[in-house]
Write a structure and sequence with these properties.
The protein is mostly beta strands. It is built from 7 helices and 32 strands. It has 3 domains: 182 residues, Sandwich (Immunoglobulin-like); 142 residues, Immunoglobulin-like; 125 residues, Sandwich (Immunoglobulin-like), CATH 2.60.40.420. Helix content is 8%, strand content 40%. The relative contact order is 0.16.
């Protein structure tokens, strides 16, 4: 697993791990992997690399007009074979685990009627979407059991890998853990013109972890980072993906509640990063790892033509918590024969526009205390979330710089802002890695680390949240509200 020395050698000091300093016990567990606590999870329920990789189904519209696609989605309990030979009850969108992928295009309106057939309220948030308050899927704007809500997405933003998930406050943690998430892939003409891998070679890869009992039932406990040691990829444990000897675009989505991934190919060859949360990077970046905290996305291109047919290439995870033999593996690529490939990765992807001059600076501190499970210790700026309180007043049209700091000594956090994408200007006063060079909506903060973000609020007005997207933490109250007016 990843050591502090390895983290620094991999260039992660700019991205987080090497900048932590003398953090406490939990961080050491995260880096080293495996503790007595982690060992209590028992033996692996299925041998890694024995289950085939599957791609989530694509959601089909029930109606298409000249400029709008209409969809029906039903949230309900469904039984699935996740572990071979067993059945697990899950919360699903249209019976799929993860939910079906919705593919759409900039300029086309998406209308989704969400029916709640569960026995708990839900709220559907398009993570990374630029939408008015009524369509944001806010934590208190819920759909009652037996009722429905229609969400309208204008898709007036650049192409990006987005995703939908439940956001009903205090319930979002369990609902997402039990299955309520799905990829939402937005394309546009500018991206199409680049010639990136497309069609069946453009693949969503939704990552999550889970804790199963001896009957294959999902076990949920709030803030249970140590026991969720079964790694699932598109709903399957440690799968094998058969690939042709050519380039693939993999859209990595971390849909875990708490787990951070530091992903590396088994032969340590570089991954070509082409995109992040908010769409394409300015230029491709060849990096040895992909670092993803919950909610973050990374688009990478892997060229399997460099491998001989028959090569078995493991996608590894370099960070805990949990036994290395479980959480240290994610999936395996089995390389087949070389096939024709007209795709390419241009040297320039998405040139960055100049940043406006900021007029406001703010500071936010994230802190989790030992009593956080009671809801009293998951804090932003010393306060637990109160839906009746506005924490930050913002003038519409303004550009601001936010310094966000994780003042916890042992626990990592991340920070997600609804509505407004941001640029990460620096981490602890140092330049950021090229993989964070584009627009983002979620930023990882290791214990003791700070990041400076620049945001412009020039689209919609109203009240939106910002929160830790280690989603158990936000369910405990690590969340605030901003009012843009």
């Amino acid at each position: 697993m990843l050591t502090r020395r390895h983290a620094i050698s991999l260039g992660l000091s700019a991205g987080g791990l090497g900048a932590v300093g003398a953090a406490g016990g939990l961080f050491q567990t995260l880096v080293a992997g495996g503790t007595a606590q982690a060992a209590q999870t028992g033996a692996t329920p299925v041998a890694p690399f024995t289950v085939p990789f599957v791609t989530p189904p694509v959601l089909r519209p029930v109606l298409r007009t000249r400029d709008t696609d209409y969809y029906d989605v039903r949230m309900a309990l469904t039984s699935h074979e996740v572990l071979p030979g067993t059945r697990t009850d899950l919360m699903t969108y249209n019976g799929s685990f993860p939910g079906p992928t919705l593919r759409t295009r900039r300029g086309r309106t998406t209308v989704v009627r969400q029916v709640n057939a569960l026995d708990m309220p839900t709220s559907v948030h398009l993570h990374g979407g630029n939408n008015p308050v009524a369509m944001d899927g806010g934590m208190m704007d819920t759909i009652a059991p037996g009722r429905s809500r229609t969400y309208v997405y204008a898709n007036d933003q650049p192409a990006a890998t987005l995703w939908t998930h439940d956001h009903a406050h205090h319930m979002e943690s369990e609902h997402v853990y039990r299955g309520l998430s799905a990829a939402y892939l937005l394309a546009d003409d500018t991206e199409d013109a680049l010639g990136l891998p497309s069609g069946k070679y453009d693949v969503p890869v939704v990552l999550r972890d889970a804790h199963f009992d001896e009957n294959a039932a999902l076990l949920y406990t709030m803030d249970d980072a140590f026991n969720r040691t079964t790694i699932l990829v598109n709903g399957k444990p440690w799968p094998v993906m058969k690939v042709e000897g050519r380039k693939y675009r993999l859209r990595l989505i971390n849909s875990c509640n708490l787990r951070i991934f530091v992903l590396r190919l088994g032969d340590a060859s570089p991954m070509t990063h082409i995109g992040g949360d908010g769409g394409l990077l300015p230029a491709p970046a060849k990096m040895p790892v992909a670092v993803l905290s919950p909610g973050e996305r990374a688009d990478i291109v892997l060229d399997f033509s460099q491998y001989a047919p028959g090569t078995q290439l493991v996608l590894e995870n370099l960070i805990g918590p949990g036994p290395t033999e479980l959480v240290g593996k994610v999936m395996r690529f089995d390389v087949g024969e070389k096939t024709p490939d007209n795709s390419r990765v241009p040297d320039v992807l998405n040139p960055r526009a100049p940043l406006p001059t900021p007029t406001v600076e703010r500071s936010f501190t994230l802190k989790m205390d030992a009593d956080a499970a009671t809801g009293a210790g998951a804090l932003i700026n010393g306060k637990v979330f109160d839906p009746a309180r506005i924490d930050t007043e913002i003038t519409w049209g303004s550009t601001e710089v936010w310094t966000v700091s994780n003042t916890s000594t042992e626990i990592p956090h991340n920070f997600h802002v609804h509505l407004a994408p941001f640029r990460v200007l620096e981490r602890d006063g140092q330049p950021v890695a090229p993989t964070e060079g584009g627009l983002k909506d979620t930023v990882l903060l290791w214990p003791g680390q700070s990041a400076k973000l620049q945001l412009t609020f020039d689209s919609h007005r109203g009240v939106y949240p910002y929160h830790c997207h280690m989603i158990d933490h936000s369910a405990m109250g690590m969340m605030g509200q901003m009012k843009i007016s």
